[in-house]
Amino acid sequence: EAGVAQSPRYKIIEKRQSVAFWCNPISGHATLYWYQQILGQGPKLLIQFQNNGVVDDSQLPKDRFSAERLKGVDSTLKIQPAKLEDSAVYLCASSLVAGSLNTGELFFGEGSRLTVL
Amino acid sequence: SQQGEEDPQALSIQEGENATMNCSYKTSINNLQWYRQNSGRGLVHLILIRSNEREKHSGRLRVTLDTSKKSSSLLITASRAADTASYFCATDEAGYGQNFVFGPGTRLSVLP
Known about the structure:
The complex is a heterodimer.
Chain A: E1 5-7, E2 10-13, E3 19-24, E4 31-37, E5 44-50, E6 53-56, E7 65-68, E8 75-79, E9 88-95, E10 107-108, E11 112-116
Parallel strand pairs in A: 2-11
Antiparallel strand pairs in A: 1-3, 3-8, 4-5, 4-9, 5-6, 7-8, 9-10, 9-11
Chain B: E1 5-7, E2 10-14, E3 19-24, E4 29-37, E5 43-50, E6 55-58, E7 61-66, E8 71-76, E9 85-93, E10 100-102, E11 106-111
Parallel strand pairs in B: 2-11
Antiparallel strand pairs in B: 1-3, 3-8, 4-5, 4-9, 6-7, 7-8, 9-10, 9-11
């Protein structure tokens, strides 16, 4: 079974520039998450999708961050314009739809490391 | 929103010793999970314990859950150098759907 795919793995940009990250979840996983992990901290949820609908985006800085999940499969997270404090690893995770078959386990990609100079 | 808090922040032990990490949280949960993260990699699921369970085992891992104290512990027995990683607990708040909140993690170093 293929895992969660993310790209790019590394990105270096200047502040005020824009950047986009892509995620392809495990086939059949309806729920997709984007987490931000700052060095030395735990992952912080940015947005959660169920199929192509947003379940929770309460911690997404909507003035600069946007995310979409067209057709309920792949997802893109965009930052525009980037700030120095956006330097972090952006992790994508997926899980099965909630229900009796759902173990609740999250499957993570390797992450996209962003450095803002 | 609630957040798990792991304790200690860092732990250094010798190979063969046992490692115990603790997690505390604030509100009622559906389940609690433990994840491992090797440096520069994504998180890997270790074990899930539901709110109606008190103890669970998986290989060298033992997890306990005390819902009255809102705490959990992860025990790794007979540790190996390969267990060196950060360990995170994640809680799924009751009535909130699958919204997983992670703590800051425990950095475990197992010395050969």
